[in-house]
Amino acid sequence: MKRVLITGGAGFLGSHLCDRFIKEGHYVIAMDNLITGDLRNIEHLFKHPNFEFYHHDVSKFIHVPGELDYILHFASPASPIDYLKIPIQTLKVGSLGIHNCLGLARVKKARVIIASTSEVYGDPLVHPQTEEYWGHVNPVGPRGVYDEAKRFQEAMTMAYHTYHGVETRIVRIFNTYGPRMRLNDGRVLPAFIGQALRGEDLTIFGDGSQTRSFCFVADLVEGIYRLLLSDYAYPVNIGNPAEITIKQFAEEIIKLTGTDQKIVYKPLPKDDPKQRQPDITKAKEILGWEPKVTRAEGLAITYDYFRNLPKERLYEESNHRD
Ligand code: NAD
Ligand code: UDP
């Protein structure tokens, strides 16, 4: 049994990682300040003997008693609407937060994996994006608070690896979706499904020709698990290369939900990436990993989750960017 610290453990991805490590028989400490997370994502684990929850801001000194084998640093606002609302906290958790995690790892001789992102490539000029691409990021644009925090986080992680010999792993996550996303977090999938369930029109930003490549959460978790157990310290893209325009995506959601609502067009946010698709050659070669869940399968599971939520959750504070 390994002792595992998961920061951001009450969030969308963090909670699925808690489930996976518990299922593998490990002891899990989830740490979260609940700034964008939700205890309802992990309440089913509260009575589990191998699970503990610490309410703590990881940008402040982290104290965990006892040994630790793995630290998964997943704490960070992740949706554009969140990190635009709390830009300083976003920069702090990507810088002070990872510094604290790496310092803790050094003391505990733990292995660290950090949640990096396709946003390190910015609005990419290389397509699909390989790990060798250095990116095209506007440091002083609205998304800079997230993108640069994540780039700094990678640099800090590499420095602890090189200069202090800490065992580190870097996963560059591409758009991932699934149950436990927050309906009002502004990301495109919960936005569209929430709108369909509330009987509102679906809002496309720009003309909908921008592309994304959506990965189902179970596939992502498997990729992260394999990367953590591998001996590869350089960044690895994990995502589903099936690329789609946002307009096609809206049409898929309309068909899936059977909504009578129409599509309305809103201005494209500044610096919104025009295209995004992971090159997953490295993940295939190093981890023997590739996604297994098709978008049709993943969307059906996700829609089932959202439509079975209590009705009042559809109307929890809405963060729409309009
Ligand atoms: P999320 O908002 O659901 O989860 C983030 C969690 O981190 C929340 O529970 C939040 O309360 C917690 N948190 C934030 N700041 C904290 C702090 N200072 N101290 C303690 N806890 C803090 O988002 P998510 O989609 O689950 O994203 C998780 C991680 O994965 C993030 O680091 C994000 O950047 C990264 N990521 C996600 C995606 C995606 O498509 N979901 C893509 C790329 C990268
Ligand atoms: N988007 C949209 N309508 C919405 C929310 C998002 O058209 O209601 C677009 C957004 O402008 C972007 C894409 O969907 O081009 C994905 O947005 P998301 O916030 O999910 O992720 P990211 O931009 O970080 O990839």
From TrEMBL:
Annotated ranges, domain NAD(P)-binding: 5-300
UniProt cross-references to SUPFAM superfamilies, sorted A to Z: NAD(P)-binding Rossmann-fold domains
Superkingdom of the source species: Bacteria
Gene3D superfamilies found in the cross-reference section: NAD(P)-binding Rossmann-like Domain
Bilayer topology annotation: Single-pass type II membrane protein
Keywords, in A-Z order: Decarboxylase, Golgi apparatus, Lyase, Membrane, NAD, Signal-anchor, Transmembrane, Transmembrane helix
Pathway assigned to this chain's UniProt record: Nucleotide-sugar biosynthesis; UDP-alpha-D-xylose biosynthesis; UDP-alpha-D-xylose from UDP-alpha-D-glucuronate: step 1/1
Subcellular location: Golgi apparatus, Golgi stack membrane
Any one GO molecular-function label of the UniProt entry: UDP-glucuronate decarboxylase activity
EC number(s) stated in the UniProt entry for this protein: 4.1.1.35
Signal sequence range: none
Record flagged with keyword Zinc: no
Family matches, as InterPro entries: NAD(P)-bd_dom, NAD(P)-bd_dom_sf, UXS-like
Chief place where the protein resides: Golgi
Names of required cofactors: NAD(+)
Protein family (similarity comment): Belongs to the NAD(P)-dependent epimerase/dehydratase family. UDP-glucuronic acid decarboxylase subfamily.
Protein name (Swiss-Prot/TrEMBL): UDP-glucuronate decarboxylase
Organism: Emticicia soli
